[in-house]
Amino acid sequence: MIKKLLITVGAVALAGLAYLLAWPVPIAPVAWQAPAAPGYQGAHAPNQRLANLRMIDLRGEVGPEHIAIGKDGKLYTTVLSGNILRMNADGSDSEVFINTGGRVLGFDFDAAGNLIAADAVKGLLSVSPAGRVQLLADRVGDDPIRYADGVVVAKNGKIYLSDASTRFAPKDWGGTFEASVLDILEQAATGRVLEYDPASRAVRVVAKGLSFANGVALSSDEQHLFVNETGKYRVWKIAVDAQDLDIAQGAGDQARVLLDNLPGYPDNLMRGLDGKIWLGFAKPRNPTIDGMAGKPWLRALTLRLPRALWPIPKAYGHVIAFTEDGKVVADLQDPSGAYPETTAITETPERLYVQSLHAKGLGWLGK
Q1: Which residue among 104, 233, 237, 244 sits deepest, i.e. has the most Cβ atoms within 10 Å of its Cβ?
Q2: What is the reported pLDDT for 211?
Q3: 202-210 and 245-246 as β-strands: parallel, antiparallel, unpaired?
């Protein structure tokens, strides 16, 4: 009896080991060298400046991931349901402007007042002031835009957007967060920045080779793009006239790292007042994840564990503002993480609105 029990236990143990070592996973992890985390010091010394946010009730909606003031003076925000909400600056008279049927992560307004949206499911969309939705682009040649993320419209009408991953589309992997985890764990660096020209309707690749290309913003002279590379904790400055530039090969004349080895995962970028650019951190750095950088097999093994055992970083509210030459001029934190995934700041003369991927309200601070 004891012998049979031991055989059974051994068989179960071997089956478990075989599962952990060989069960197929969707990623093909790439080894890389994560820089030593800087911690919270210097310009990023711990503080409570983001704590005790005031809240605007979203009436059951979740995830005000992007916030902007429209040409009509109204505040617009995108939420998880696919709705784009429109309201007064104080949150009153809130209404559903449109539902795209996908998940808009970033948007901007063109000169005609059209809302230009990066929809992670649908692609690049234009929504007229009357609410008519038009698909502008969902592919580059024959290659689909799998994960439209950030977007910005230049004064000349050209549109720049990030395609965060050409490997993992949110519609195929359970949502935007799930797809981002897969891409960042893999580290294949397939993210890219695209340009859409409304005059010719052509889409071209400005730069590629980014480990989860995320927020985008234009320089004041509109000759460069600032782009968050979430998976490698840095911000790039890239020439808008670059053509299919592979930054995985390193910095060059048309691209350079502006901010490196940041204390968290940089998400959205938003132009603020007085020339500054706001950046939000979706999560802080995690020593377990950094420790797996050079161990691709261990990252694959992680995906075979129950999700509750994944090394997801803790919640930690953190946003910064920097100048175009890379100087950090503001740092706001809430170590409690009460407002989850502080992905950026939308600044007006009166308020700082806090963007979030999963918050149940719209947080703001008075100025």
Answers
A1: 104
A2: 98
A3: parallel
